[in-house]
Amino acid sequence: MEVVQYETQLKDVKYSETLVLSENEIKITSFWSHLLCTATTNKKFDPLFVMENIIPSFDRTFNYLIEPEDSWKHGKDVVAFYNTVQNMIVIRSDVYEGAQNGNCIALISIAHEVVHCIQSIILRFIRIFDCAEFKKELSKIKAEQIQEHEFQTDSIMRLLFSPEEITKGRTQEEVLDEYVLKPVLSLICILIKNVGKQFLDFIKEENAKNPVLNQNYLEAV
Predict the structure, then answer these.
(1) How big, in percent rounded to 5, are the helix, strand and coil portions of the chain?
(2) How many Cα atoms are found within 13 Å in the side-chain-facing hemisphere of 1?
(3) pLDDT for res 185
(4) CA separation for the pair 76, 57 (Å, rounded)
(5) Alpha-carbon distance 149 to 116, whole Å?
(6) Beta bridge partners of 15
C-alpha cells in the first residue's frame, strides 16, 4: 500500500528527490523535528496540530486539503498523501475526522504524510546550500527505492511518537554532543563555506566586468 501511496504522490512527477539518511541521521532529524513540533504541545507529537499550525509557520507555501469521502478519486488503498509538487497534504474526510476523534490508525496515516512534508522542508533547505551528499534522485517506477524512502519516513514517525527511543542508551552529554553541537557546528561551517563561495563569485564577476583594472592591479603587484 505504501508503494501505491507514494506513486500517487508522484503522479505528475517523473523524478523526485528524497533525503538519504543514515540511522544516526534519522535520529538527529527526529530529535530536531520533535523539538520543533512539540514546543507548544507539552512534548507530545500531535500530527494534526503540526499540520495545521507548526508547518505553516515554517513554510508559507504549504497547505492541506480535506477531500470528501464520496468524491475521493485516489484509490481505496490511499487515505492520505503528500503532493510534492503542490506542497500539500491531501486527506480523505473520514480519515481526518477519525484523527480528530483520536483514531490511532487515522492519526498514524496523517503523521506519515506530515513526516513526508518535514523531509521535503529539510530537503529544500539542503538544496539551498547544495549539500548533494544528502540527496538522490528517486524514480517513481522503482518500487525498491520507494520502499526505502517509506521505511525511512516510518522510522522518523515512530521516533516522533516515541521520543525516548531517540536518546535511548545515551548520556545527556552524548545527546548534547551528537544531536546538538555537531549538527549546529556543521551548519555553521556550511554557511561560512557558502558565504565564502558567494564572495569569490562576486569578485570573479567584478573582475570580468573590469579586465583592464584587474590587469593594472596585477602589474602593480
Answers:
(1) 65, 10, 25
(2) 10
(3) 81
(4) 32
(5) 9
(6) 139
Furthest-apart CA pair in the chain: how many Å?
A: 79
Q: In angstroms, rounded to a whole number, what is the distance separating the alpha carbons of residues 80 and 96?
A: 9
pTM across the whole model:
0.76
Instruction: Please tell me the predicted confidence (pLDDT) of residue 70.
Output: 93
Q: What is the C-alpha to C-alpha distance for residues 44 and 54, in angstroms, rounded to an integer? A: 13
Grid cell of 89 as nine digits:
497534504
Nearest in space to 164 (alpha carbons), one of 18, 45, 22: 45
Q: What is the DSSP string of 29-59?
A: HHHHHHHHHSTTTTT---HHHIIIIIHHHH-
Residues 6+ apart with CB under 8 A from 164: none
The proportion of the chain whose per-residue pLDDT surpasses 90, expressed as a percent, equals: 39
Helices (H), 101-141: 104-128
Whether residue 160 is predicted with pLDDT greater than 90 in this model: the reply is: yes
CA gap 51, 102 in Å, rounded: 15
